[in-house]
Amino acid sequence: MTAMYDIAKEMVERGLLTVRTDENNPDIEVFCYSRDAFQNGNWNSITLTHRGAIYYKKQMVNKPFEKIFNIGEVEGVNHDTISRRMENEQFDVLHKSNGHLLICSHFYDENDESVFVWSTKGSLPNKGNDLLNEDIRLINEPDGLQHKVEALANDLGVPFTMMFEAIVQHDKHTLYEKDIERYSDMYPTENTFVLLGMNTFFGGSWKDEPLYYLEHLREEFGFTLVDHFDNMDSNIKSWYEHKDTEGYVIRFENGDRVKVKTKEYWAIRFKKDLRPENIIGKFRVAGYDRIENKLPEEISSQVVPLIAEWFESWLIEEWTNLDANDGRAWKHFNVASEVVSSSKEVATDDKLTEGQKEYILHVLKEKPFSEYALKCSQSKTKRKLFCEWFSNNDAQKKRFADVLTTIIDTIGE
Questions:
Q1: Pairing mode, if any, of strands 17-22 and 59-60?
Q2: Model-level pTM greater than 0.90?
């Protein structure tokens, strides 16, 4: 194992990173900071850089963007700091495209053969990953993105990592129509992949390629390049009032980036997607993953733990409810709330509810309740029952709406 791989795996065990393995090639793994790391601000050199980090046979083989914060989100990117840097350093102002991040990692295997891995920041094209699999179907179409990156690989002959914004019909974000119009060039389209940045591996180190090099790639290989702005007002706070855009990304010469999102974007997003019933609906369809894939990270990182808390409460009060059926379930416990029956006795007790039986059998395995709750959240039936319970609970809905309003109001302060 490499030292970096050991550290990354340790971070997984500590709950600071997630890891997923390619079902078709177990030598390929993708690491990303976890929801807990984001929510609790557990940022270090590993969690910041592992935002789609690909390991091949335990060697890191790509360099995606580091975590990009909203201005004001953490101390290092407050307004005063960024304004001072803009006065003293070279920088570009790029359009904050409104889609999802798609990463192309090109490297060479032990036989010096080119390998291309397409991923999101935390997933690979495994079975059930409809979002990424549909992206890959599109990029493999004739004259699609795959052909362009292959041509680039043949031309460069070195490893590289390219970051794209996928603005696609199968994952329409808030400003999909506006961004499709912006990036359609001369030919109308329903799907486009916008080049945001690129890192290349030369002479034993990675280089964050400047904007002029990306413009060269647009001319030579036909990539769609993110818009940039040369004459922006130096008063960043005035950017919040801009219309018809999610916002901007400030890229400094050393590769540091920070996001600035507009008030109009958040207002539209709140009206369109950030209502309690919409978010709960996403959970009902595909659980926590759907929320994390569909909502901005600064929203999902706070919303998911809240829904998880309510889901666990529902499990205890409604689904498992040990007092139901005249407290039949307590027959299987002693006064110390320890299960005294065998698994066979529990499984064959036809007076237990399905939820009681399921929960007691889990307790017998001496596993934590959180593990049981996570497994339950993967059940379509239980998510449906929970969402029906939630929709009939006016107090919870009001609390959720208030929380969402607070989250929006405090982003970027």
A1: unpaired
A2: no
